[in-house]
Design a protein that fits this description.
alpha+beta, 2 domains, six-stranded mixed beta sheet, 10 helices
Length: 380
């Protein structure tokens, strides 16, 4: 292989598993990883003989797409960095990194068991290519992998025996192929706007991006973060009677939870988009905003739980009652999963110096203007 700078061409070996059969192993020991890398090198050479000009680097671990498609592509970045440290000429330009004493050589290369139940596992690999040959080899790979990128029979058999799985398919994909496949999957489940944000974060992190969810909630990407419109603000622009508006709010909070879970999996922080400093720093599994400061002329603030069928508590509102029982809103918090409710309530209570007693409303309570509200009378 030529001397000079090496450029990385990232790819994966994608394993489509038989339904209901998660892999018994997520990572391979060093010797096993080296065996697999040799088989992969044979497959790739048969597909694109020009790969002989490149160094193949393999991470002997399988990941879900959400673990690989994160800003900066950290798994590939780590793999490339480790591969570049190995002196040229060793291992016939095939370099594999597996586990030793149960641990991969870098934390970034450790698969997360939380994402192990998906229908597809991905083994990341990289071809390190002399700069002068990058474009030609990249174009050849993009064409050949899409057209006939099935793994060889020996490779597929080896994977089934060593990972303890049955495979429907095993094929090579460039990273661009993986991006396109993930885009189609998100579009199929009505999450195209989410992919629009992810694509910006992955491919053009220096440029902002804005979109609307299927239900019309505004999201934008900027400076490495996703900013979501406040559901309370979104509600103010909706029409219909109280029942319709309550149903719509429950739906948009459900959608926000979907987005939050996937953004977290892809390593993207989420926060509320609110004017000035009126948001509370997002906690683990919740978002919150301040809408007004406490007024000593009103009663002490009280915490209320707005609930929706099938979703549990969708909003926690902090409010004060004043003359004639009129309620004054101070804050709204949005638990993104049930386990986060306690932390959200404790944070709001601490912020306003009150007890963390939460009053269940049994429904979504709207005021006479159709906005999130609180009861005029005290609840016991």
């Amino acid at each position: 292989m030529e001397a000079g700078p090496l450029q990385a061409l990232p790819a994966v070996l994608a394993l489509e598993l038989s339904p209901g059969e998660p892999p018994q192993r997520l990572s391979l020991a060093r010797d096993d990883a080296a065996e697999l890398a040799a088989l992969i090198a044979e497959d790739l050479h048969a597909l694109v003989p020009e790969v002989v000009q490149a160094r193949l680097a393999l991470a002997g671990a399988s990941f879900d797409a959400v673990e690989l498609l994160r800003p900066g592509f950290p798994v590939w970045a780590t793999l490339d960095e480790l591969a570049r440290r190995v002196p040229r000429g060793q291992l016939e330009n095939v370099v594999a990194f597996g586990s030793h004493d149960g641990h991969m050589p870098a934390q970034t290369l450790e698969p997360d068991r939380a994402y192990a139940d998906g229908p597809m596992r991905l083994l990341p690999l990289s071809l390190l290519v002399p700069e002068a040959r990058v474009q030609t080899l990249s174009e050849r790979l993009e064409v050949e992998l899409v057209g006939r990128g099935e793994a060889g029979a020996r490779t597929a058999d080896w994977l089934m025996r060593h990972l303890g799985v049955r495979l429907e398919h095993a094929r090579y994909l460039s990273r661009n192929d993986l991006l396109a496949l993930t885009c189609v999957q998100y579009e199929h489940v009505n999450l195209a706007p989410l992919w629009q944000l992810l694509e910006a974060a992955l491919l053009t992190p220096y440029r902002g991006e804005a979109t609307l969810s299927a239900r019309g909630l505004a999201f934008r990407y900027a400076d490495g973060k996703i900013h979501a419109q406040s559901p309370a603000q979104w509600l103010a622009a909706q029409e219909g009677d109280d029942a319709e508006r309550s149903h719509a709010l429950a739906g948009v909070v459900f959608e926000l939870r979907q987005y939050a879970a996937l953004l977290h999996a892809h390593g993207l922080p989420l926060q509320l988009d609110a004017a000035g400093d009126r948001t509370i720093d997002a906690g683990e599994g919740w978002l919150a905003e301040i809408v007004a400061d406490a007024d000593d002329a009103y009663d002490a603030p009280t915490l209320y739980a707005h609930e929706a069928a099938g979703l549990g508590v969708v909003v926690v509102t902090l409010a004060q009652r004043g003359p004639a029982g009129r309620a004054r809103m101070l804050a709204h918090g949005y638990p993104l999963h049930a386990a986060a409710l306690g932390s959200l309530v404790a944070t709001l209570a601490d912020r306003f110096g009150i007890a963390s007693d939460l009053h269940a409303l049994g429904r979504i309570h709207l005021d006479e203007q159709g906005a999130l509200g609180a009861p005029a009378a005290a609840l016991h």
